[in-house]
Amino acid sequence: MSKQMTTAVEPQVVRRSNIKVVGVSCQTMMDEREYKIPRLMEQFHTTNLPKVRNRVNAPRSIGMFVDPPNWNEMTDAFYWIAAVEVDSFEKIPPNMITKTIPAHTYAMLEYDPSVHDFDPYAYLHKWMKDEGYQQVEGFGFEEYKPYTGAETSYRLFLPIK
Fold first, then answer.
1. Pairing relation of β-strands 139-144 and 61-66?
2. pTM of the entire predicted model
3. C-alpha distances out from residue 26 to 66, 88, 94, 116, 151, Å
4. Residue 158 and residue 121: Cα distance in Å, rounded?
5. Cβ(43)–Cβ(35) below 8 Å
6. How does pLDDT run across 89-137, given as a tens digit for each residue?
7. In this structure, are residues 136 and 44 in contact, taking their beta carbons and an 8 Å threshold?
8. SS3 call for 74
9. Residue 10 burial by CB count (10 A; 0-12/13-18/19+): exposed, middle or buried?
10. Neighbours of 4 (CB within 10 A)
């Protein structure tokens, strides 16, 4: 008998300060994300991460999506960034990008794929709608402590107003 839960812990509304991150990115469609994103995350954590010299708040790492304006999940690609927090954008390794996750109010959900048996994105979107929040378009992120592979538990953050 499976011990997986089909409902989540209660989402929370949290305020986060801005976070400077350095990492690598890929462009993907929704139907490609199941293999492109894990491959990028694995590549970053095994090959690129040791090159980041000004990392802070280890072992935390970030997986971030960035959507184009008026994004349509059926027809438009989006970017995924595998990254870690840094104290500055100085001495960035070659072939890596920088991004600042803005200070904002976020809906946050803790998700553990070994315990939960549901789509955390759909669950959090429904909760936000039910609670009267609107998602700020364009981005969101997953926070891992630490990232250990595709089955890593994480906190999902979606910006709200």
1. antiparallel
2. 0.91
3. 10, 23, 16, 27, 20
4. 9
5. no
6. 998 999 999 999 999 999 999 999 988 888 999 999 999 999 999 999 8
7. no
8. coil
9. exposed
10. 12
Which pair of structure tokens corresponds to residue 33? Answer: 């994300």
Using DSSP, state whether 93 is helix, strand or coil: coil
Return all residues near 111 (Cβ < 8 A) that are at least 6 apart. Answer: 8, 120, 153, 154, 155, 156
Look-up of token digits 């980041």? 52
CA distances from 103 to 15, 25, 37, 106, 108 (A): 7, 21, 25, 9, 14
- In angstroms, the CA 129 to CA 144 distance is 25
Q: What's CA 136's distance to the chain center, in Å?
A: 15
| Gyration radius of the chain's alpha carbons | 16
